[in-house]
Amino acid sequence: MYAVIDTETTGLLPSHRHRVIEIAVVLLDARGQVEHEWVTLLNPQRDLGPQHIHGILTADVLAAPEFGDIARQLGDLLAGRMVVGHNVEFDLGFLRAEFARLGVTVPLITERSMCTMALAGYLYPGAKRTLGACCTAAGISIEGWHSAMADTRATAELFSHYLKAFPSPPPWQWAYEEVRRLPWPALPGTDVAPTVRPVHAGGRHGWMSRLVDQLPRVPEPPQADSYLVLLDTILANGEITAADADQLVQVATELGLTRPQVDSLHRWYVAALATASWGDGTITPDQRNDVDRVAVMLGRRATDVDEALLRASGGRYVVPDRPGARGFPPGSTMVFTGDMVEPRELWWDRAVAAGFVPQEAVRPETTFLVAADVDSLSVKARAARQLNVPIISVDDFRRLLPATHQNPERKAG
Question: Where does the Exonuclease domain start and stop, copy by copy (predicted)?
């Protein structure tokens, strides 16, 4: 009756020619009992994207089938079944795109599928968003994060757990009856053997991953959780690359989120991350630095983190004494770019007085870039993006400066 799916992909956007590189399917009967499992790596004939997230190496997929080789096998597994996934629209979007590359349209309809992320919010108001958090709440353990089969098995067990909250037949039986009768086209493919990922292939890990699992859901706008769950996935490894940031912008656009909505979600996200980090009543300097780095990546300031930690701690948190409020410590190297209202020399003096080390050019060791326009296409800005050096606005830099250094007088001579 059900086909639970999960995919690992080379990126976030099928519209940007990102591809599926691993897919797993677990078939369940009407009671949620496992009937069959199937998984394979796929050779996308392109680079593998964020390998630090999915843990798949190029060597793993060199001998793997291409999507066209397994299309018929996959279609046989999905046809006549209601598809289930965690943030299922993400997986369905990629599968529709893969089949479209083969010149076929398949009846994978989001509105006729089941999403365990949505079910969690429906059944348990206040439930967390990530698969890990939902499984933890249900007492389900997961091993092998971000392997398609581990995540699919976990989603299948989670869905089986949720099924018990509904009568038999469930209220979506009518949708299943529609799906069961939908015709599938003739698909290409062979009986090629699946390629299973080696045991070395990893998944998400570490303190930031555990922190992300604690973040609550966001009820408005309706697309918020679909956007934030992808942000969760990226941040599970503690960083957002320039490519990740570009993809998030496109995801927000495709979801219909406006710039103010995204800014609001980022502000909320940073505050929620800071609050979760205080969960056991303490935060180490390294952990605080991690949260500050995320704040910078999302266009926020470390003062936002300060405020959230003060609220979470009931005022007990001690704000660190530092020249920069974005997690940039004394001695941080920085570069200016663009025409600013005030003379560049004045900003240079302010930076030196605050303990920063201005440079003329962006280098791999540069800590951050201050831009008159954060979307600048200057040589310095392009170099910063290539080297993953954070770019901040002049106004944000002004806020980094201690009050006594905001407007230092220029010395004569």
Answer: 1-168
